[in-house]
Known about the structure:
Layout: E1 13-15, H1 25-31, E2 40-42, H2 50-56, H3 61-73, H4 79-91, E3 101-105, E4 108-112, H5 123-140, E5 144-149, H6 153-162, E6 168-175, H7 181-188, E7 195-201, H8 204-216, H9 218-223, E8 226-227, H10 234-250, E9 258-263, H11 268-278, E10 283-290, H12 295-302, E11 304-306, H13 326-333, H14 338-351, E12 353-355, H15 358-367, E13 368-372, H16 375-389, H17 395-406, E14 414-419, H18 427-434, E15 455-458, H19 461-477
Parallel strand pairs: 4-14, 5-6, 5-8, 6-7, 7-15, 9-10, 9-14, 10-13
Antiparallel strand pairs: 1-2, 3-4, 11-12
Amino acid sequence: MGRGFCKIKTLKYVSTRGQAPTLPFDEVLLTGLARDGGLYLPEIWPRFSNADLKHLSRLPYTELAIQIMTPFIGNVISHDDFSSMVEDTYRNFQHPSVAPLKLLDHNQWILELFHGPTLAFKDYPLQLVGRLFAHVLKKKGQKATIVGATSGDTGSAAIEACRDKNLIEVFMLHPAGRVSDVQRRQMTTVQSANIHNIALEGTFDDCQDMVKSLFSDKVFRRKHHLSTVNSINWARILAQAVYYFWSALALGAPYRKVIFSVPTGNFGNVFAGYAARRMGLQIEKFIVASNANDILTRFFETGQMSVTEVIPTLSPSMDIQISSNFERLLYEYYKQDGKAVAKVMEQFRRKGLVSFGKGRWKAISRLFEGQRVEDNAIKDAIFKVYQETGEILDPHTAVGVVASQKALTNKNNLVISLATAHPAKFPDAIQEATGIRPALPPHLNDLFQRKESYLTLPNDFESVREFIATTLENGSKA
Length: 478
Ligand SMILES: *Cc1c(COP(=O)(O)O)cnc(C)c1O
């Protein structure tokens, strides 16, 4: 490899709530949520100069990914090991350029992030995170139990990333009968000894509460080395920052500034873009696109963050009320004051309502614009784009594209909308909008013939904990 950028020997990570120990990259990877309830962020941000960016703009995706992420890893993983994990990861993606850009309309681009094994952008970070976990666990002589809740896409991406890795056991909870058939089958047809699917008799919120309860059982947590791979995990955010560089550089950065429109749930993907900007990438603005679950849009409109009920929509992966990664942004706008962040987050948890001060709200609003897009507008947009261009947008991508058209930005600016899922993941919505039922890509076309395995459990803490404990004990004897 050529030159190294931003040499920093031992980058450490700090918690957004300021009370947990600072940790190196490998510990942050395995820990997920910090012990004080906060999320990890780098203590300082490595930065790429314009000269660096000019050089980076000539690299293929994989090499770019290595260069962008290396300064964040420090010396805890060797450069050769890390490079081969990144190469392995993106070699298996279905498109030669990994993340292709398509022109949709004048100055309007989409960045396709659905060429990984499970057809959503979550493969881009998780395929790497699975490899990083296996590598770090082996080096430390440890095992990990990944417990997660999913409304669809996270589960399949995590399962596909961890299958056949013998130091990791995965227990994935989905709400019984409430995920699409494609989404369920993408999880339950993976026949691997370390993958355990649980259909919980409850809602997605019940699944999430169950996971939280398992983590709060300190003895259980320690005994089984519980861990998570949802977007509170820093390694995921880091891997996602890469495609912001990739697309902006392809369209003219550092000489041209771009705007990103990002369909948003947990704010993880938007925050990855913010991270790229902190590392020196020229990004003019972020459009934070929400469906009817518009807590962020309402925050940008009023300066207040307030929780309401979750409304089911055509873009289920964004049916979220509490965007956990927003805390990372707050930490930045509170100038790294962890105590202050802990205080407002505590208030938010207690009252379901909080504001962060007018000055901060104005400052955040200079870089981020919230836009809400309802289901009718999504269907219209999918139909219209299909008629005009032949492209079929998935419902999540459509939220971002409509938001970018509604946004109050100068139309001479370049806008990149992130295409976060393949339309075939949501065939019913697409059929309703266009009359066409999109086909699954070849590697999944026998999905409905594959054998499923999962266990249905009641929404009862003891039953779930018992099942996990027994499975782990039987496994370690074998
Ligand atoms: C997870 C997901 C989102 C939301 O991403 P966040 O990082 O949670 O904001 C959007 N679209 C699709 C298809 C997803 O799977």
